Prior knowledge:
Layout: H1 2-14, E1 18-19, E2 23-28, E3 32-37, E4 48-53, E5 58-59, H2 60-64, H3 87-101, H4 108-111, H5 131-135, H6 141-163, H7 174-187, E6 211-212, E7 227-231, E8 235-240, E9 249-250
Antiparallel strand pairs: 1-4, 2-3, 3-9, 4-8, 5-6, 7-8
Amino acid sequence: MEDKVNHFHRWFLHHGAFFGEHVQLHYHPFRGLHLRVSQKSTMKPGSCIISCPHVLSLSSFNAKDSQNPFTDQFGDDAAGETASLSNLNLLRFFLIEQYRLGSQSFWWPYIHTLPSPSAEYPFNTPMYYDDDDKKWLQGTSLAHSTRIIDQTWREEHAQGLRRLRNGNFDRYPWEIYKWAATVIQSRSFPASAIASSHRFNMTSDLDGSPVLLPGLDILNHSPAARVTWQWTKEACNILSDQQLSPGAEILNNYAPKSNEERK
């Protein structure tokens, strides 16, 4: 894992991203990649924790914004349904494609640090619970919402497969689609994060258009964390609104996300 972290760190900084003063990148088998205040420093309120330039963002706009757009792989299905996929579904397939490209993908240093779809249990969300764990959910609202998510994702996966022009279904199997959907569900930010960017054509509807922001999704969640999400024309930043002691883990507050959405 150390090589993956170092590769990501070099790629991240090379493209204009940065960690705030006294912020250090750490890895722990249980906490995963996360950020901490350096042992000899204190983080003051108003300090920038991390900054991700728009060039590193990964969204459906990237799938459309190229000389050979990824969207060209999709057409009408056999029933004559419209060729248009939702921005959310398009991003899932685009993320799978970037994973499949491996080191040839611009985002590989980031994707390589994510939980691997080949792991037995890449995530600890209910969608990855085994049968024994699911028994504990019986009779709860979480069991119902998990069934709805599973059904919806399977329908959206099938919808995308029906529209593939090349018929290369094996490239997008259900298990990897579920991985991509979980990555986006648990780690994404709203499209408003890059709405002011000069890099993308924002004339289309932004609803349902999540954005992956490498680096910003490293921060673990705490409802007590006081932070500001700052979106500028060039970058997406997270600022601390509280003082943090030396060695403290730096946390984000993903308040809008429900329990089943958090990784």
